[in-house]
Amino acid sequence: MVKKATPKQLVKEPPAASDTVEVEVLDQDEVEAPEEELRNPADGQEEGYPGEADNWSGGEDADEEAQPLDLAPATPPAPVDTLQRYLWEIRQYQVLSRDEQEELAKRYHDTGDTEAAAKLATSNLRLVVKIAMEHQRYWMSNLLDLIQEGNAGLLQAVKKFDPFRGIKFSYYASFWIKAYILKFIMDNWRLVRLGTTQAQRKLFYNLSKEKEKLQAMGITPGPRLLAERMGVSEQDVIDMDQRLDSWELSLDAPVRDDSNDPHQSFLPDEQPSAEESLVEGELRQLFHEGLMQFRETLDDKERDILDHRILSEEPLTLNELGDRHGVSRERVRQIQVRLLDKLKAYMQESIPNFEGLFADLAEGE
Length: 365
Hints:
about 375 residues, mainly alpha, Four Helix Bundle (Hemerythrin (Met), subunit A), Arc Repressor Mutant, subunit A, 3 domains, 17 helices, elongated
């Protein structure tokens, strides 16, 4: 005769509100390395996603595998701490063996069974937490941000995984998880987006390490040496070094806590002042009037060369003007030089202090 358990016997006593959830990652099993052509998770992947993930992560740490996490207590903690609550929730999902994961992956691959895909994903949620914790040093704001992006990468791994290639799903998924997490960090590290090129992504994650490595060898890590060792341009090293060593400042932010004046109010105005614009307009008008008066002193040939060669935005060639007037290109060139000399002399005579007012024009002619 089987004695039924009472509800009281099935429910553990709730912990005190001060109890926290401790995360303990057990030693992972040895992971078999995939074939070289399978290191990138999927063919036709999006730019900035797996394929570069192993460069970002350093290689050896890539072969992560979902391991049982000792998440206690058995009942949910105080609802105030969302991270502790999430860690408690993922404890409810069972960690599957490799054979069980392969079976689910094959079922989803062959039949599109969404329940199999969901079970495969939820059994690896602890792997996402483990990888997110490893990258928390790059993102100190909220660990849940990284976990959320890692979960998106996990779902992408479920979608792209080919169970017939002989690779562990957790190893394959780690690339997608890291790629999504690292891309999120790149996009949100600064107000101005970083890592828009592969060279910038490489520098973002490896520049500090390379500097420390050179300093340990007693070598000063200059931009040229760093660029040669990392296979990027020297300017890329300089730009990334400045970005990592500084922080953005909003121009709309007040200069002090007790001030309402934004930083942008103290920036110099590069636009010309009203007085400068007025003076420039008067000089343009003066030069235009003198040019039109000079034009009336020319004959038809000189006037045509002035209009279509000297003043035109799309000047005719010397050959075209020579054919139009029945002279050689050399003769047109001589007329052009004479016209410029005559124009300069006319302006100096008709406009007082011409060389001072139009110094750039006078030097050019």
